[in-house]
Amino acid sequence: MERVLTAPAATAAAAAALKPPPPSPIRTNSKLRLCAIVSRDDVTSGGITVPVANQVHIAGAAKSHSKNAFENVFGPDAAQDRICSNVLPELVQGVFNGQDCTFIALGGKSRGKECLLYGAPPSSAGIFQAAITSIFKITDEYRTSKPDTRYQIRMSAVQYSQRENQLTDLLSPFNSDPRRRAVQVVDDPRAGALLENESEIRVDSPDLALFYLNTVADHRVVEDEETYRTSHVFVFLSVYAYRTGTNELEGGRRRLAIVDLGLGERNSHRGELTMPAIGSILLALVQGQKHLPARENCLSQLLKCAMCSSRLTTFMCSFAEKTDDNENVVQLASKLARAKRSTRKNKDSLAHTLLDPAPSLSSSLKECSCMALK
């Protein structure tokens, strides 16, 4: 028998059909780490000091936000290899333990941030070079200890410009596929935010990966200060594990996302995201909120893509010449630290509630048994 909809039912059905799909799931990060780096330029020209271990003081700041915000503050005397060895091992090992991990470098254009990420060849390696070297080193060890598994490493890199509202595939010149289409971010209600049509290049050696990294660095380090702060680079190092002799994935794909995040516009006159707006997006992602601020913005979707599946996210805050920008960075770190403590407290209280229902339950059972005996 054919079902006939009445007028109100038809109206409700039409409204349901026009209703937008639910937001994609967001997972709260199980572990968050907040670090900061203070260079010699920050001390001499920016008025930034480290008065107490793991605290940052900004001269002339209207308010101090840095108390207990950072787990680690690397001062001007910290060697580059010490920073990399402190930050990277947990992230890289997490990838080989079956987890997605994310490293986010937040700050304006400065010599300290460029050295942190891209190094100062040939004297010291940056986070990118050290991550590539570590991933290949562990892969070689796993190939020896797990001969039944074949490992493959792939690399992709995109850059988003706020002012041009343009997403650029930085490795597209090396993609020989004639069918390739424009890269885009898709927010799937079930799978979450993901990149589509990006050039994911297979890299069989550290030298090849470093060659592609130079392409990324060439786009980034030559930018002027205004362009730098309103553009953002996302590099993904993906590890695929296949069963030997087949193309069958064993354990799926795990990746390390390294994000060179700018500060956004100085003000909202252009209608683009400012530093406080970007901070609100990051805070919502850390808290696991379903509805993100500016969720239609490409940067919001890219950050969601990088952080949604991540089980370990490390922030490295750097500083520049502008005092107000530095204050915004430290204020955001303070908010993230509070969100981290709040999330941990909620998890602990939930675990206590789940693990400690026994006394009330046992007393109820005793009362019931006594009544039955009477």
Automatic annotation (TrEMBL):
Entry keyword set: ATP-binding, Cytoplasm, Cytoskeleton, Nucleotide-binding
Main location: cytoplasm
Subcellular location: Cytoplasm, Cytoskeleton
Keyword Nucleotide-binding: yes
One GO MF term attached to the UniProt entry: microtubule motor activity
Gene Ontology cellular-component annotations: cytoskeleton
GO biological process: microtubule-based movement
Ranges where the Kinesin motor domain occurs: 25-342
Family membership: Belongs to the TRAFAC class myosin-kinesin ATPase superfamily. Kinesin family.
Protein name: Kinesin motor domain-containing protein
Organism: Ancylostoma ceylanicum
GN (gene name): Acey_s0126.g1365
